[in-house]
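Quick start: what a row looks like.
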Amino acid sequence: MDKCLRCHNYSVGRVMKRCPLCGRILTRLRKDSNEIVIRGLCPEDRDKLIRFYEQLSDETIYTRFFSIIRYFDPYVDKLVSSSGILAIVAEEASSGEIVGVAELVLDKEGRAEGGIIVLERMQGKGIGTAMALSMKELAKEYGIRKVYGYILADNIKALRLVKKLGGRPKSYYSSMIYVEIPVEDG
């Protein structure tokens, strides 16, 4: 895969594709003395994404993926190259370190499954909320009517975020909850 150099075309095999969000700055926020930039994921972020996932604790990985994952290369390759995924990152402006990732996996019914993960040392600083709000705006832009996801039943922070975004639990399972967030307000 040729790198895109911030929203130029990139090639996968012989097919040229456009990076849907590459490098597009969605928002900036200040946390402590750091500026955090939330922007579209770019194929050139691959190595930084691998480092990000390698820093996460087993607990954080399990909370997001419902299993412990040790080898993230296939997942990251899918994130940076799939046209059916809208992905953004939260990045420390000073170091360029990725501190959060959010994605929407598009389905054929005008919906998308969402997921967010934030580095432990950056949790509780509003980064996940800012990423979720950015993803909701992107969903509107891309014509997605509803975002859904599965959350562990004891993940109180995620359930609060769903409520803040106007969503609600729809189904309860033994250890997880299926939630839906309408994209259009009201």
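That is the whole record. Confidence is low (pLDDT under 50) at residues 1-18. The radius of gyration is 16 Å.
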